[in-house]
Amino acid sequence: MDMGRVVIKGAGDLATGIALRLHRSGFQVVMTEIPVPTTVRRTVAFSPAVYQGETQVENVTGKRCETMKVAEETLKNGNIAVIVDEHADIIKEMKPDVVVDAILAKKNLGTEITDAPIVIGVGPGFTAGADCHCVVETKRGHYLGRCIWEGSAIPNTGVPGLIGGYGLERLIRASGEGAFKGMVEIGDEVKAGQLVGYAGEQPIYAQIDGVVRGLLQDGVFVTAGMKSGDVDPRCERKHCFTVSDKASSIGGGVLEAILCMKNRR
């Protein structure tokens, strides 16, 4: 059953968790991305379709589409359409039933409550009733994935949630400025202090033992301190290739928000 069309702004791992929930529930999904994505969890995101042409996440295919006509054909074939469209101009042409801002910029970069009959903001930076109809919480913990119908999500703390007892230590951060070059692959086990990549000529080392769960694609220009990957101390390699609990929870919250508004109407 066709549940309607959704434009998701962003195609990173959390946006992909949303896309999968909606796609499997019968929605036709179009995702927008920037020309050079900076998704580190590339194996569970549709953003790599931008530079690969297409990609698969949990047996669902996302295809890069250059035109609305190609996107229409992609949706007709049961796939997810990915469009390079930094400002989501496709919204005006497509007139979707739902717009979901899942850029995760921690601030609103231009989404308005009038963009579609149902507009959902994901994470901090949005206010329900002002620039969107509903906000979905993204902070790990008791409220993760909750629908917020009045007010905003918990403000960004700048500190990632704990996984296996580690927070900031999980991150692989660029040590300098330049083109990123990975020296390991997603899914590889690493030790604290091991070389995992380069930022230009500057080496980057892992901070903890674990499995590389995310890593930027080679060639992305990075600046000092920029998130370039992450290490999972739980060492469950299969987790690197399936959508996270966080992404699934947020996706469930978005689905709930959409169905709630549809039922109200």
What does this structure look like?
The protein is of the alpha/beta class. The chain has 5 helices and 17 strands. The strands form 3 sheets. The chain has a 9-stranded mixed sheet, with helices on both faces. A 4-stranded antiparallel sheet has the order 10-17-15-12, with no helix packed on it. Strand 4 (60-64), helix 3 (68-76) and strand 5 form a beta-alpha-beta unit. Helix 1 packs across helix 5. The longest helix has 20 residues, at 245-264. It is globular, with a radius of gyration of 18 Å.
Helices and strands, in N-to-C order? EHEHEEHEHEEEEEEEEEEEEH
Count of helices?
Answer: 5
**Structural class by helix and strand composition:** alpha/beta
Question: How many angstroms separate the termini?
Answer: 19 Å
Question: How would you summarize this macromolecular structure in one to three sentences?
Answer:
This protein is of the alpha/beta class. It is built from 5 helices and 17 strands. Helix 1 (13-24) packs across helix 5.
